[in-house]
Design goal:
alpha/beta; 13 strands; binds magnesium ion; Hypothetical Protein Ta0175, Chain: A, domain 2
Length: 273
Amino acid sequence: MRESLEIETFRPRSPALFLDVDGTLLEIAATPDAVQVEPRLRRLLRALCLRTSGAVALISGRAIATLDALFAPLFSLATAGLHGFERRTATGSYHRCPPPAESVLQLARARMEGIVARYPGTLLEDKQFALALHYRLAQESAADILRDLQLITAEVRPHLQLQLGKMVGEMRPAAATKDDAVRAFLREPPFCGRWPIYIGDDLTDETAFECINSVGGVSIAVNVRRPTAARFSLPDVGAVHAWLASLPLGLPDRAAMIAGVNQQRFQPIPLRF
Ligand SMILES: [Mg+2]
């Protein structure tokens, strides 16, 4: 595999794929543990890895260990977890940003457990270095929950920051974002020199969309009905699978690549987090 990766770096128009997971490769479930990875998706990812000589990376808010368990036995994928806080390269080396102080995480955990106690249906997902509060099953209390999360943010800033998503508010390390992870991958084989494609669905993907746009890549938003920096869109997870399966990876031709994705009807706007 490694030999072919070095050869691939001499084909600068070959694509590299950066793929968000929840809401992009996987349907969002009622709770984070309830998602399903179908064998067909594993086969698709394996095929994409082979066809790109390993230039496929998962870019997720989940921890790498959780993603490994979900996608097993696909253990060797290049992966960024916790929104870019941790990263495993295509050759398997592991990088992590300096973690937030344990005292800060404990404070956030205690405050968020208080929210869970106050609002039935909410769920706290403890990712060790990040804490996600899911309120998909308590949507009627969304405004109050978001207000309470904002109050916690004031206590844990600047070590943790609030990352909003689809029915989730997460206290994540402020040290890294998804675009940091994408930039780091693009400096290394087998991604360096490639033409990057990023597919994502949520607010945390916006910095990566901007990064991809800045280097002339293809940014694709999935099922997004808000302003986004993504230049293209696909309607749902099924369409992502179908588009990836039909991607003419052997053809270094931008027009062929973007056939099948829709031009975004939203004006790209710069977003700040
Ligand atoms: Mg997502």
